[in-house]
C-alpha cells in the first residue's frame, strides 16, 4: 500500500491517510514513510489504536534503536516502568492529576520551551512518536517549527558564520532557565552532549538548523557571545511562517524528525484537565546498523 501524504503547510508537515501502524510490517511502506519524514519533517496519523507494547514495537520497526536515558529518569522511575516509553502526561502514579507544585510537573513545564528531544544525548534523538490517549476538551496543541526552512532563509553571511560550529546541549540547562533546581546527584546524571549547529540529512543532503532550549553554549565562542547568537537564531527559527500547530485528538500519532524540526507544548489548564500521551524516541543511528527486523 502506497501511503498518501496530504501536506498541512507548504513543504512542511503532512497527514497520512488510512494506515494502521500497529499492523504495518511491509518494508516498502515503512521505507515510503521514512521518505515522507525526510520530505515533511512531521507526519500526522489519525485513529491509531496503539497499546504501549505496540507503540514500542512500531518505533523499533520504523527507526531502530530506542532512546531510554530520558532527562526525567534522573528524578526517579516513571509510572509506565519503561524508560523508553516517556510519560507525557499530567497524571501521577495513582492516576490523579498532578498538583501545580509537583516536582515532575515543574520539570515537564520546560516542554513548553522550543526544543528537540534527546539533543542532550549522543547519539541524539532522531524520530519522536507521540501517541495521544486522553486529551482535554479544548486545544492543548503541540507546535512544530521547520528547521530546514529556518536554515534556507538565513542570509548568506550568517550561514557562513555558523556552518561548522558546535553546540553543547544539556537538559538541566533548559530546566534551570525556568528556575528548576536539581540536586548535585541529579546533575551528575545530566552532563549533556555536543552536536553540530547545522545538520545535513545523510539521505537528501538537505541542511537544517539544530537548536533547542537545551543549547547552553557554542563551543567555538565566548559563552555570552554564543548565547546571544543562539537567541537570535532561535528568534529567527520560530517565526510563525515556519510553525505548524497540531490540535490533538485521541488516537493521533505524530512522528517528527528531531534533526529537522523543533517543537513545544502549548499552555493549558493542566491542573484541571487530564492529558495523557506516550512518546517513544529513536536514536540517530544509521538504520542499517540498528539490529532488529520483525
Ligand atoms: C514531547 C513534548 C509537548 C506536548 O512529547 O516530547 O515535548 O505538547 N511534548 O506534550
Ligand atoms: Mn519534547
In words, what does this structure look like?
It is a single chain. The chain is built from eight helices and 15 strands. It is of the alpha+beta class and 294 residues long. It has one domain: 4-Layer Sandwich (Double-stranded beta-helix), CATH 3.60.130.10. Strands 1-2-3-13-5-15-4 form a seven-stranded mixed β-sheet, covered by helices on one side. β2, α1 (27-40) and β3 form a beta-alpha-beta unit. 38% of the residues are buried.
Topology readout:
Blueprint: E1 5-9, E2 12-16, H1 27-40, E3 42-45, H2 52-63, E4 86-89, H3 103-108, E5 125-134, E6 142-146, H4 147-152, H5 156-162, E7 166-169, H6 171-176, H7 184-188, E8 193-196, E9 198-200, E10 207-209, E11 215-218, H8 223-237, E12 243-246, E13 253-257, E14 261-265, E15 276-283
Parallel strand pairs: 2-3
Antiparallel strand pairs: 1-2, 3-13, 4-15, 5-13, 5-15, 6-12, 6-14, 7-8, 7-11, 9-10
The protein binds N-oxalylglycine and manganese (II) ion (MN).
Q: In CATH terms, what is the architecture?
A: 4-Layer Sandwich
What do we call the CATH homologous superfamily?
A: Clavaminate synthase-like
Low-confidence stretches at least 5 residues in length (pLDDT < 50)? none
Cofactors, ions, other ligands: N-oxalylglycine, manganese (II) ion
Structural class: alpha+beta
CATH topology: Double-stranded beta-helix
SS summary, helix count: 8
Tally of domains: 1
**How large is the radius of gyration?**
18 Å
Which CATH class applies here? Alpha Beta
Q: In angstroms, what separates the terminal alpha carbons?
A: 18 Å
Question: How does the overall form come out from the CA principal axes?
Answer: globular
Succession of helices and strands? EEHEHEHEEHHEHHEEEEHEEEE
Task: Output mean pLDDT.
Answer: 94
Spatial arrangement of strands, main beta sheet: 1-2-3-13-5-15-4
Instruction: Write down how many β-strands occur, each being a DSSP E stretch of 2 or more residues.
Output: 15
Tell me the helix content.
Answer: 10-25%
Beta-strand residue fraction: 15-25%
User: Main sheet?
Assistant: 7 strands, mixed
Amino acid at each position: 500500500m502506497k501511503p498518501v501524504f496530504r501536506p498541512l503547510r507548504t513543504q512542511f508537515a503532512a497527514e497520512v491517510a488510512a494506515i494502521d501502524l500497529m499492523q504495518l510490517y511491509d518494508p516498502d511502506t515503512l521505507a515510503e514513510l521514512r521518505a515522507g519524514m525526510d520530505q515533511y519533517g512531521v507526519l500526522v496519523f489519525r485513529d491509531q489504536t496503539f497499546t504501549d507494547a505496540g507503540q514500542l514495537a512500531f518505533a523499533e520497526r520504523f527507526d531502530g534503536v530506542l532512546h531510554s536515558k530520558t532527562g526525567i529518569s534522573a528524578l526517579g522511575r516513571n509510572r509506565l516502568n519503561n524508560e523508553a516509553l516517556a510519560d507525557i502526561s499530567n497524571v501521577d502514579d495513582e492516576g490523579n492529576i498532578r498538583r501545580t507544585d509537583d516536582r515532575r510537573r515543574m520539570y515537564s513545564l520546560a516542554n513548553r520551551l522550543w526544543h528537540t528531544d534527546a539533543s542532550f544525548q549522543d547519539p541524539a534523538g532522531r524520530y519522536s512518536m507521540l501517541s495521544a490517549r486522553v486529551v482535554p476538551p479544548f486545544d492543548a496543541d503541540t507546535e512544530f517549527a521547520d528547521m530546514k526552512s529556518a536554515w534556507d532563509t538565513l542570509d548568506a553571511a550568517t550561514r557562513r558564520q555558523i556552518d561548522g560550529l558546535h553546540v553543547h546541549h544539556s537538559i538541566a540547562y533548559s530546566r534551570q532557565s525556568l528556575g528548576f533546581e536539581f540536586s548535585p546527584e541529579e546533575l551528575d546524571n545530566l552532563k549533556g552532549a555536543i552536536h553540530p549547529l547545522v545538520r545535513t540529512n545523510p539521505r537528501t543532503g538537505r541542511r537544517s538548523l539544530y537548536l533547542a532550549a537545551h543549547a547552553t553554549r557554542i563551543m567555538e565562542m565566548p559563552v555570552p557571545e554564543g548565547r546571544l547568537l543562539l537567541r537570535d537564531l532561535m528568534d529567527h527559527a520560530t517565526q510563525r511562517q515556519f510553525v505548524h500547530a497540531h490540535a490533538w485528538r485521541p488516537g493521533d500519532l505524530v512522528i517528527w524528525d528531531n534533526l529537522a524540526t523543533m517543537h513545544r507544548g502549548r499552555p493549558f489548564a493542566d491542573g484541571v484537565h487530564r492529558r495523557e500521551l506516550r512518546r517513544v524516541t529513536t536514536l540517530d543511528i544509521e538504520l542499517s546498523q540498528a539490529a532488529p527486523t520483525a
